[in-house]
Design goal:
519 residues, alpha/beta, six-stranded antiparallel beta sheet
Length: 519
């Protein structure tokens, strides 16, 4: 990556962009590594002058999960592109781009216009400037992407290059093979949810795995603890009268033949706490600030407890929302509202989120970790499985089409580079069309990515069980040996044309009336 044509710095939220020296900062470029030295600083912009091809199509990523919004688009100068971008020239067929390595110490995004492209480094602490006080921060490592043959091959090579600096995981890894399992969220939604239902799910997934040597998981999702869905910790006991012996539930799942998993929301508590963040939040006084040492101490205790209870998988959820007070689309380029900061103002928000993920990874030890609503570029190498898209649905097929198909089509190259990708559950429910769910099952199973299923006992039939069994076994085998890739993704946000080796596959995702805009 050549040096930028120009560099600009913003010190405080009310300051404009200016030369680094005028803001009392120093920005050093060393063969793609960006180092920043300053007292207080908010943003750095690095500009490269380069003519954009006429009619170019441009693709970026997302801060955390995608929300059905990943797509190739024509030039939109203000469109911010988190982490990396690609530019496809339809006249020559070449695709190039640039990006930052995973686990940077800044939230990094790009903008692309007719005269060049800009890398924006958000170095703030919450909604205010970070106080580096003269510390030199290695903000990011930048890489240029050359054309690798096709847009898909270029994205595949680009994502691989951004993860080359990840340390090797210790052996044996928590996930030694394909990730397949049951999760009843999309038919139960935390209602009529008890140990009996959980054990029924475990029995169902084991039955449909049909003796496969890779054991499936069975996850106890949100709602197992006192207070109701999304009410928060402490995570020290199950709901009285419903999950009286949560360790016994884990043991019963194991006895059935599945690997037990459990959900928690690490940064939310049921009662107001002096350790909470000042970030804007719909539950004020209850979202924990991860820069308090006591908060991290509590997470370590929680993860040890889950392991002592006998769980083999932990899904940690909502941490991006609880840090920023917003989900990905609402974060936008500003990430959060101005005017608040963490208890520790000396680290960037990216450093703080990375520190949180590292603490969870270390405390989890050999537990399988699923990150949901986690920042993918920061969580890479620190979770085993990553939910890459917003929720699918057991009530509305349109959500599964929009969220599940879109995210798998555009983020599949991250699979086994950053983490095992998870496009979210395949539903089997009376409220959603089975023939469309079955196509989504086939796509996910062929891809070799994580396959979780929400199978409502009321929706099971002999024919559906046959299709479920075939899909589950294909996923447990690791997917189609040739892999799968979308072939109409340049022009379709939910691709219908795919290729697996030499086989062309068509998936019709539409209901008789087409895609419902109210879905």
């Amino acid at each position: 990556m050549r040096e930028p044509s120009a560099v600009f710095v913003q010190a405080g939220p009310s300051d404009g962009l200016t030369a680094p020296s005028r803001a009392g900062a120093e920005v050093t470029w060393n063969d793609g590594t960006i180092e920043v030295t300053a007292t207080r600083i908010s943003r750095v912009a690095l500009r490269w002058s380069e003519k954009l091809p006429d009619g170019a199509l441009i693709l970026g990523d997302a801060w955390e999960r995608s929300y059905g919004d990943l797509q190739w688009r024509h030039q939109q100068p203000e469109r911010f592109l988190p982490w990396y971008f690609l530019v496809h020239d339809p006249r020559t067929g070449t695709t190039t781009g640039a990006g930052v390595d995973v686990q940077p110490n800044a939230f990094c995004s790009w903008t692309v216009d007719s005269d060049g492209f800009t890398l924006w480094l958000d170095l703030r602490n919450g909604g205010g400037p970070v106080r580096l006080d003269g510390r030199t921060l290695t903000a990011a490592v930048v890489r240029r992407f050359d054309d690798a043959g096709t847009p898909w091959q270029t994205l595949d090579a680009a994502v691989a290059s951004l993860s080359t600096r990840l340390p090797a995981r210790p052996e044996p890894a928590p996930v030694a093979g394909p990730v397949v399992g049951a999760n009843n969220w999309y038919y139960a939604y935390g209602e009529n949810f008890d140990e009996k239902a959980v054990l029924k799910d475990a029995s169902t997934i084991v039955e449909l795995a049909d003796g496969h040597p890779v054991r499936p998981f069975s996850v106890v999702d949100d709602g197992w603890y006192p207070g109701g869905v999304c009410s928060g910790g402490p995570w020290d006991r199950g709901t009285p009268g419903v999950f009286d012996d949560i360790a016994g539930t884990a043991a019963a799942i194991k006895a059935i033949g599945a690997r037990p998993g459990i959900w928690f929301r690490p940064l939310l508590v049921r009662e107001p706490s002096p350790l909470t963040s000042t970030a804007p939040h719909d539950k004020p006084g209850r979202a924990l600030d991860p820069t308090y040492p006591e908060v991290l101490d509590g997470l370590r205790v929680d993860l040890r407890r889950f392991k002592d209870w006998g769980f083999e998988l932990v899904k940690h959820d909502f941490s991006t929302y609880d840090v920023f007070g917003a989900f990905g689309p609402a974060m936008g380029s500003r990430l959060t509202r101005d005017g608040w900061q963490f208890h520790d103002p000396s680290r960037t928000t990216a450093e703080i989120v990375l520190g949180l993920y590292r603490e969870i990874r270390s405390a989890a030890d050999d537990l399988v970790l699923i990150g949901c609503n986690t920042v993918g570029h920061l969580a890479a190498g620190l979770v085993d499985v990553q939910r890459i898209g917003d929720d699918t649905s057991g009530r509305d097929w349109e959500r599964t089409r929009k969220m599940g198909v879109n995210t798998l089509a555009f983020r599949l190259p991250q699979h086994n580079r950053f983490f095992t990708v998870d496009a979210d559950c395949v539903p089997c429910t009376p409220q959603t069309p089975w023939e469309l769910n079955a196509r989504f099952l086939d796509l996910v199973a062929r891809s070799g990515t994580a396959l979780f299923l929400s199978i409502d006992p009321a929706a099971r039939t002999a024919e559906r069980d046959r299709v479920l069994r075939d899909g589950i076994r294909l996923a447990l085998d690791g997917g189609a040996p040739e892999g799968i890739e979308p072939t109409d993704w340049l022009t379709n946000t939910t691709p219908t044309a795919w290729r697996s080796g030499s086989e062309a596959i068509e998936y019709d995702w539409s209901q008789p009336w087409g895609a419902d805009p109210n879905g």
